[in-house]
Automatic annotation (TrEMBL):
Biological processes per GO annotation: L-methionine salvage from methylthioadenosine
Keyword Transport listed: no
Stated name of the protein: Methylthioribose-1-phosphate isomerase
Keyword Amino-acid biosynthesis among record annotations: yes
Pathway(s) served: Amino-acid biosynthesis; L-methionine biosynthesis via salvage pathway; L-methionine from S-methyl-5-thio-alpha-D-ribose 1-phosphate: step 1/6
Active site residues of this protein: D258
InterPro entries: IF-2B-related (IPR000649), IF-M1Pi (IPR005251), IF_2B-like_C (IPR042529), Initiation_fac_2B_a/b/d (IPR011559), M1Pi_N (IPR027363), NagB/RpiA_transferase-like (IPR037171)
Residues reported in the UniProt entry to bind substrate: R56, G57, A58, R101, Q217, N268, K269
Length: 359
């Protein structure tokens, strides 16, 4: 299958307007109707974009976190009279950026990469302006690293699907939940990276995309992205996955992750757990595709993963008297329901992910 990956825009990048650094992000709230861009030199606007899901998806918000700290460093370098004041204020900014959303560990990871880079630059006696420049370089490097990791994840995932397609003697039907695509990363995607790599080899007949209530990442983003790339796509409501599986249309499930605990339990968009339970019932392999930076060795198991509870208006637009609403944005799939975690360093059993990530 010939893909049109060049139709996919880059999700987040940095550029200069004269000397001024800018962060440029697709405003994903406007998709699929309009492809709009946010361009800002204000770190608070990046944090707002993360909170309001203009930029979303674990790897993308990790990059956004580092980029926000970078923009703050450029402003603080102008405002602060000493390196000590600069460092103290940058630490405060970093703490508030890291709190923008709680579940995806990549956000904390991206912010930590930035604070480590800043500490190293200042520790080496570099000026606050040079420190800000080092953070600009870091943001560019994280974007390049992310795409490279996704392409490697894609290649490892395609190898798994190649074996399945060979056993089936035909290209495969795949199911995905939420958007773990190019839009959730700098470029290419994790779960959809696996789809793209496999589709290029002719291993994919069709991708079934769950709508993904309540925010609709599948209905608004995944199907748009797959159509742009030229992958045959069918949109289904979340409650249709079982029927598609029962009809024999799904050969494998591929999803992303926001945080993988040391024991292999994986948090991902709400509804993923239900898909994993169904996949086990129907004997369908369930793959989690994520970079090693999504593994959190400080979180022993899924019960310790903080789950973001979002505003009730996402579920019930106008309040109804006497009705309360729950809106957990993520759920945790236990390791025993995951066939393999596909990382940029290879596919691994969830039971081994902790030791694998430690290496
Ligand atoms: O709330 P979102 O849209 O940020 O949730 C995104 C997901 O759950 C993705 O599946 C996950 O971040 C993996 S992205 C490669």
């Amino acid at each position: 299958m010939t893909l049109h990956l060049d139709n996919l825009p880059r999700t987040i990048y940095v550029e200069r307007e004269g000397n001024k650094p800018l962060v440029v992000m697709i405003d994903q709230r406007a998709l699929p109707g309009e492809l709009l861009w946010l361009r800002t030199d204000d770190w608070r606007a990046v944090v707002d974009a993360v909170k309001t899901l203009a930029v979303r998806g674990a790897p993308a918000i990790g990059i956004a976190g580092a980029a926000a700290v970078m923009l703050a460093a450029f402003s603080l370098a102008e405002e602060c009279s000493s390196a000590a004041l600069f460092a103290a204020r940058l630490r405060k900014v970093a703490a508030s950026v890291a709190e923008a959303r709680p579940t995806a560990v990549n956000l904390v990871w991206g912010v930590r990469r930035a604070t480590q880079t800043a500490a190293r630059a200042l520790g080496a006696g570099r000026s606050t302006h040079e420190c800000a420049e080092a953070l600009y370089g870091l943001t560019e490097a994280l974007i390049a690293e992310d795409e490279a990791a996704n392409r490697a994840i894609g290649a490892h995932g395609a190898a798994l699907l190649r074996a399945r397609a060979a056993a089936a003697g035909r290209p495969l039907g795949l199911l995905t939940h939420c958007n773990a695509g190019s839009l959730a990363t700098a470029f290419y995607g994790t779960a959809l990276g696996v789809v793209y790599a496999a589709a290029e080899e002719g291993l994919v007949a069709r991708v079934y995309a769950d709508e993904t209530r309540p925010v609709g990442q599948g209905a608004r983003l995944t199907v748009w992205e797959l159509a742009q790339a030229g992958v045959p796509t069918t949109l289904i409501c979340d409650n249709m996955a079982a029927t598609m599986m029962a009809a024999g249309l799904i050969d494998a499930v591929v999803v992303g992750a926001d945080r993988i605990a040391a024991n292999g339990d994986a948090a991902n968009k709400i509804g993923t757990l239900g898909v994993a339970v169904l996949a086990r019932h129907f004997g369908i392999p369930f793959y989690v595709a994520a970079p090693v930076s999504t593994v959190d060795l400080d979180t022993p198991d899924g019960t310790a993963i903080p789950i973001e509870e979002r505003d009730a208006s996402e579920v019930l637009p106008a309040p109804l008297s006497g009705v309360s609403v729950r809106n957990p944005a993520f759920d945790v799939t236990p390791a025993e329901l995951i066939t393999a975690v596909v990382t940029e360093r290879g596919a691994v059993s969830p039971a081994d992910i902790g030791s694998f990530a430690k290496e």
